[in-house]
Amino acid sequence: MENMENNNLFDLGSAPVAEDFDPFAMDEELLEEGTAVKNDAGESASAQQPKADSTASKQAEKESKESVAKALVPEAGNAPKSKPAKAEPNLEEKPPVFAYAGATETISDTSMTFDELRIEKAGDFPELDDGKRVSWTVEYGKITKSVADPKGTSIGKMKSDMEASKEFLDSLKKAKDKNPVCKAKPRVTAQSKGTAAEYKGVFATLEEAEEAGKVISIVPSRDGRVYEIRDTEMGRFVTTAAGCDMLSEVRAGFTPALPRIPLKLTMQVFAFFRHYISNDSESEALLNIYWDKEKQEFIADAPEQVVTEVSVEGRISEKYMCDRYIHYMDIHSHNRMDAFFSTIDDHDERATRLYTVVGRMDSPVPEIRTRISNGGKFLDIDPAEVFELMEEPYPDEWEEHVEVKKHHKKMIHKAASKCGKLGKKLRKKVGIL
């Protein structure tokens, strides 16, 4: 405390108190203005009475009072301005959020219009791409408002208008949540997909379509096709529904939920297969690829198997028949033969997973074919979608030294024109008319 006193600093919690300190005394400034106080004897004391000897203590006392006063009473220039009673003070500063299909995101730029927000989000949600198909609502507490003009209405303006409305203020008084979130919600309307509820509909079964009694019905069939049915006074017309805008765009394929099989593991698989074409042997072999959910990695297993030059008979390892492992792929070799799926493969590979056959194992680069089985329905896919293959980047300067010319067709055309009928056939073969 000595250092603090020497530096004329004051510690509110530990400053010494003068012996003659009177907590009920009036402020010295008031005394100097002529205000009289009573002494212990009841006599009037002059405002100009002599100062006590403990000047430093009284000065510290005065500074203490001033510090406390400043802390309790803000300066006039910094006093907070009173806000309208229209909403909680923090509602205006609380940003709105975009809410759609389970996703929420804070909207930092509230000056953008609802349509500009739609365009921004269409990359993640393609169904929002067509503005004619999208309508907007704003949900704020218990109030929901439709956006009449998405192209001309800013998100911030819509939010502030709702905050100032009597309906919103009344609902806020009754609500338990006094600090709600303003949510901008797009919606793909049914009309935008071309449906006309009065006469057209999509149904899961023919029975549902007949019960609905629509003039035009879209119905899937057990043959895997979708049919358009029109019931008229002439009779029922049924054709395949090609290009129906009421149906979603679905394309066959495979979208992996797991990473690609690492290159190192792929090379181990190839080395294992090559072993069975050495020493004049040309046997096939089988490996099963599993995803270990605990270790988050792929592993390969060689099940018990009996192999020949043209077949493999194997039994799945019981070790991997548990929830920890996902049976991701069967992969077998065709020794020196081409990579292809045989009729035996078609009969065996009915489980829903991936299947790969590797051929030309005597070549530096084997031949690979991969397909999916969707409940016994097959579709070939690019092996690069599920395998890390040998793709090393090369220096850019290599390309700088290569010049590509595109005049070979002109040269063929010139040569073929001199060969009569034979030249005409040649031009057709290479696509030159």
Description of the molecule:
The protein is of the alpha+beta class and 433 residues long. It folds into 5 domains: 2-69, no CATH class; 97-191, Ubiquitin-like (UB roll) (Roll), CATH 3.10.20; 195-240, no CATH class; 263-385, Cytidine Deaminase, domain 2 (3-Layer(aba) Sandwich), CATH 3.40.140; 406-433, no CATH class. The chain is built from 12 helices and 19 strands. It has helices at residues 2-6, 28-32, 55-72, 114-121, 155-164, 166-174, 206-212, 263-275, 343-348, 396-400, 408-416, 420-429; strands at 37-38, 44-45, 97-100, 103-106, 134-140, 143-146, 182-188, 200-202, 216-220, 226-231, 236-240, 286-292, 297-301, 304-307, 312-315, 325-333, 353-359, 367-374, 377-381. The strands form 5 sheets. The protein has a 6-stranded mixed sheet with strand order 13-12-16-17-18-19, covered by helices on one side. A hairpin with a 7-residue loop joins strand 17 and strand 18 (367-374). Helix 11 (408-416) packs antiparallel against helix 12 (420-429). It is extended. Residues 45-58 have a biased composition (Polar residues). Residues 59-68, 85-95 have a biased composition (Basic and acidic residues). Residues 1-96 are annotated as: Disordered. Residues 19-32 have a biased composition (Acidic residues).
